[in-house]
């Protein structure tokens, strides 16, 4: 028993390093995108265009890449993540030594941003793949350490930028992702797989669904690689994705325009650093103990709770009268984003059939990515025309509608006396 426990911690520790390296690289590319691009001579409009293109292309390629991985063959989650990481390392080196060639910078940075968004669901899906092979991983803890890595790396990079050229962003990216690549290359499944370790009780519920649907465990199911086939097969899941777009519309609005929101409340740039670091750090406890919570509370209920707290967060910001209200709003992160990420990952794994597992994770990430595109385009316009208060009111309404749709999609998936319902 002791050997098995140690082995479980070892799997979790290595997976946690992979997550931490990924989100440290994510921090360098996403948090400091404007700083890098402005230094290289781009305007705000050009930066917005770049990020919009990157998000849209990412949404397109995520299901395609997931479909390739879901098919039986040599392309596994680990190999795909390793190739994506290696490619970003090479592209980051190109950016670090490219000064004023704006077309090259535009294309290379867009590729980095796009690839980084595209393989995030692959890293999530890798956890469930390994769990099925008998490698016990505490996904919540590992993902929480990823957020902690983001929170710790951001101020370090910020201080380095005060003393060095902006190319340090991509040099740092190369260093942290090289560590991640090393752990990915050695993160191999054991030759002999063991019985899967049931961590949260969700696997048992999934097996029950399979029996109710009349499926035979281990039997090959049909992969739904075509979007319309996927949507028809998982209608409730598609409703959940729409809900996620609306909820994250408000969430991304806060992240993208926080300086405009807090300035009328007496906040400054330093308050942004404090608020974002606090939000990232308080995610760790919820993610770390998610597995234990999910043993007592069904994943679906935790997911519904997270959408409610997303709405409470934006409402508190809408009602805030001073900078203290901003920090109170950020405290909701502990039950909003921190709960949504592991809960949505388990939920997607639970409702997807075997050959749709990676696609399920990819579509959740696509919904979040799309919300960022809409938020950037719509909220900026509202902000210019009517100010932050009206923008927060619109965000509150969108988040509330998203919460209502999420509850409708997630709650009971089958009615009394009916046949099995997918998704």
Describe this structure in words.
The chain has 423 residues and is an all-alpha fold. It has two domains: 1-188, Up-down Bundle (Growth Hormone, Chain: A); 226-412, MFS general substrate transporter like domains (Growth Hormone, Chain: A, Up-down Bundle). Helices cover 77% and strands 0% of the residues. It has 20 helices and no strands. It has helices spanning 2-31, 33-39, 44-70, 77-96, 102-118, 120-132, 139-163, 168-186, 202-212, 227-233, 235-256, 258-262, 269-281, 283-288, 290-296, 299-319, 323-330, 337-351, 357-386, 388-410. Helix 13 runs parallel beside helix 17 and helix 19 runs antiparallel to helix 20. The protein is globular, with a radius of gyration of 21 Å. Residues 1-8, 196-203, 208-220 and 414-422 have low confidence and may be disordered.
Q: What is the structure about, briefly put?
A:
The chain is an all-alpha fold. The chain contains 20 helices and no strands. The protein has two domains: 1-188, Growth Hormone, Chain: A (Up-down Bundle), CATH 1.20.1250.20; 226-412, MFS general substrate transporter like domains (Growth Hormone, Chain: A, Up-down Bundle), CATH 1.20.1250.
Name a few traits of the molecule.
423 residues, mainly alpha, Growth Hormone, Chain: A, 2 domains, disordered N terminus, disordered C terminus
